[in-house]
Write a structure and sequence with these properties.
With about 260 residues, the chain is an alpha/beta fold. It folds into two domains: about 150 residues, 3-Layer(aba) Sandwich (Rossmann fold); about 90 residues, Orthogonal Bundle (ProC C-terminal domain-like fold), CATH 1.10.3730.10. The chain is built from eleven helices and eight strands. Strands 3-2-1-4-5-6-7-8 form an eight-stranded mixed β-sheet, with helices on both faces. Helix 1 links the parallel strand 1 and strand 2. The longest helix has 21 residues. The chain is elongated, with a radius of gyration of 21 Å.
Length: about 260
């Protein structure tokens, strides 16, 4: 079989998606092509993704995933327009489907996706949104690709900024919480390595329980909280500091910045 997908940009996210597609059986390594101008990066990809085709130029007539920095997307789309690619999937933050369609022309289906960094370990959360020419089949195609490295939802493009504020930027919020928990535990006397181990497993365990339980997070929180107990004392500090309002402001700020980038 010929090339099933080419990826423009061989960075970490492109690498994760390629590895996931091969591991998932969506495509064989020989059906994938990566466009990466940096020879050192191509050497790395050749080692971690044996069998994948590597080059400096895109090829004609092939479904394409654009995984480059936002400021490069216009140039990439101009090249793809000349090559007559059937459809395009972009993970470039802030670049609208309309902007890409204007350059690609000819009714080329464009799907935009907001992934996040846990895709690097196969636990990503991604939202896909189709442009004016994208069909249900195009959205299903995009969802299959992102589904190789995590969970996928389909949304209207107008909601992509909210997705960015939640799941796109969300891992950083969790990592900040992890840092704070580790530091606080060390202040309480725990050795740093013990604090790290317990923090990592607590976050992993809580997230797994949240995902696998039929109960909402409010019920899971109540199950840990005894009246007058230790958890109640800790949660009272969060509430006094306006924790829910802080989280709402954080997500709103990230979403607003996403809108600004898309407009700029």
């Amino acid at each position: 079989m010929g090339t099933r997908l080419q990826v423009i940009g061989g960075g970490k996210m492109g690498e994760a998606l390629l590895g996931g597609l091969v591991a998932d059986g969506w495509a064989s390594a020989k059906q994938l092509h990566v466009v990466e101008p940096d020879p050192d990066r191509r050497a790395v990809l050749a080692e971690v993704l044996p069998g994948v085709s590597l080059g400096e130029a895109a090829i004609a007539g092939v479904d394409t995933l654009v995984a480059v920095k936002p400021h490069v997307v216009a140039d990439v789309c101009a090249d793809l327009a000349d090559l007559g690619v059937p459809r395009v999937l972009s993970i470039a933050a802030g670049v609208t489907t309309a902007a890409m369609e204007a350059i690609l022309g000819g009714g080329v289906p464009v799907v935009r996706v907001m992934p996040n960094t846990p895709s690097l370990v196969g636990e990503g959360a991604a939202a896909v949104a189709g442009g004016t020419a994208a069909s249900g089949a195009d959205l299903a195609w995009a969802s299959e690709i992102l589904g190789a490295v995590g969970k996928v939802v389909v949304v209207d493009e107008g909601l992509i900024d909210a997705v960015t504020g939640l799941s796109g930027s969300g891992p950083a919020y969790v990592f900040l919480l992890a840092e704070a928990l580790m530091d606080a535990a060390v202040v309480e006397g725990l050795p740093h390595d013990v604090a790290v181990t317990l923090t990592e497993q607590t976050l992993l365990g809580a997230a797994t329980l949240l995902r696998d339980s039929d109960d909402p997070p409010s019920t899971l929180r109540e199950n840990v909280t005894s009246k007058g107990g230790t958890t109640a004392a800790g949660l009272a500090v969060f509430e006094a500091a306006g924790f829910r309002g802080i989280v709402a402001d954080v997500v709103a700020a990230a979403a607003a910045r996403s809108r600004e980038l898309g407009a700029g």
